[in-house]
């Protein structure tokens, strides 16, 4: 028995699903193979040769096959555009950082969106809220207790609300009008600070920049000295973003590399 094989491929998943649905209406029975974006040619050949005793048609669905088109979501970093904004004259330096996503991302990409879209992610550069880490028990293998205290400080909430205002101003520019649809979040109906706060507290997420938990300094909260050595111990250093007394205004990668360069000099010179 020889199956008829139908390939559906492209970089528009919603259109592909519609095409597959229309083709399914023609068959009383079929065998479907949905392949991932990172699929190999061997996997495609294997799927094409697969058969079913109950159907004479095989539908092979390729969503965003990057290796065929060299375009789509896998062809770029998703974070090709960013910037810094000073939202008020009272700030000496830019207090908000933006990242533009040419895609609709939900829960860090863990939830598949049901529509197309783009997003402007915004965050205050210097949050004032402070959390704490404590021991969970005397067992060293137990996870510690971590209390983040996000948005505990009123300034953090106010600056996050400012993020929404600035983001709306940017996204309302004439150059983006041809690509704009209705605002998905927080939504055009959300205009008051009370509704902004409700939206922020329900939707705000962390942004992969953990730091400042083992700060450098000489006060009672400091963990390492100016040579990155832990206070009270010998020859043990901490070399990562945790030694920053305050988080930097931008991403952590470059300053962390600089800390590592300095640490290597200290270690090589036995300082």
What would the principal axes of the Cα set say about the shape? extended
Question: N-to-C SSE series?
Answer: EHEHEHEEEEEHHH
Tally of separate domains: 3
Q: Quick one: biggest sheet?
A: 3 strands, parallel
Q: Label the structural class.
A: alpha/beta
User: How many H/I helical runs?
Assistant: 6
CATH superfamily of the largest domain: Glucose Oxidase, domain 3
Oligomerization = single chain
Q: Which bin fits the share of residues in helices? A: 25-40%
Tell me, rounded to a whole number, the average pLDDT: 83
Low-pLDDT windows of residues = none
Q: Architecture of the largest domain, CATH level 2? A: 2-Layer Sandwich
What report would you give on this structure?
The protein is of the alpha/beta class and about 270 residues long. It has three domains: about 5-70, no CATH class; about 75-205, Glucose Oxidase, domain 3; about 210-270, no CATH class. The chain contains six helices and eight strands; from the N terminus they run βαβαβαβββββααα. It has a three-stranded parallel sheet with strand order 1-3-2, with helices on both faces. A three-stranded antiparallel sheet has the order 4-5-6, covered by helices on one side. α4 packs across α5. The radius of gyration is 26 Å and the shape is extended. The mean pLDDT is about 85.
Write a concise keyword list for the protein shown above.
alpha/beta; 3-stranded parallel sheet; 271 residues; 3-stranded antiparallel sheet; Glucose Oxidase, domain 3; 3 domains; extended; 8 strands
């Amino acid at each position: 028995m020889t199956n008829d094989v139908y390939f559906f491929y492209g970089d528009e998943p919603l259109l592909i699903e519609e095409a597959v649905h229309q083709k399914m209406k023609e068959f009383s029975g079929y065998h479907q193979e949905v392949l991932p974006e990172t699929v190999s040619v061997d996997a495609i050949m294997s799927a094409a040769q697969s058969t079913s005793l109950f159907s004479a048609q095989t539908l092979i669905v390729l969503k965003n096959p990057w290796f065929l088109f060299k375009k789509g979501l896998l062809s770029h970093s998703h974070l090709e555009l960013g910037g810094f904004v000073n939202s008020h004259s009272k700030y000496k330096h830019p207090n908000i950082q933006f990242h533009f996503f040419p895609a609709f991302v939900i829960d860090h990409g863990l939830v598949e969106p049901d529509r197309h879209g783009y997003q402007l992610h915004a965050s205050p550069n210097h949050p004032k809220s402070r959390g704490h880490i404590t021991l969970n028990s005397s067992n060293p293998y137990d996870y510690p207790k971590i209390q983040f205290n996000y948005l505990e400080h009123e300034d953090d909430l106010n600056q996050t609300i400012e993020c929404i205002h600035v983001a709306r101003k940017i996204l309302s520019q004439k150059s983006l009008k041809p690509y704009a649809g209705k605002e998905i979040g927080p939504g055009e109906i959300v205009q008051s600070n009370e509704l902004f706060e409700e939206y922020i507290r329900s939707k705000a997420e962390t942004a992969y920049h953990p730091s400042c938990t083992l700060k450098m300094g000489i006060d009672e909260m400091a963990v390492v000295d100016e040579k990155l050595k832990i206070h009270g111990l010998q020859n043990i250093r901490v070399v990562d973003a945790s030694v920053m007394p305050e988080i930097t205004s931008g991403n952590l990668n470059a300053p962390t590399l600089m800390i590592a360069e300095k640490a290597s000099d200290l270690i090589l010179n036995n300082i």
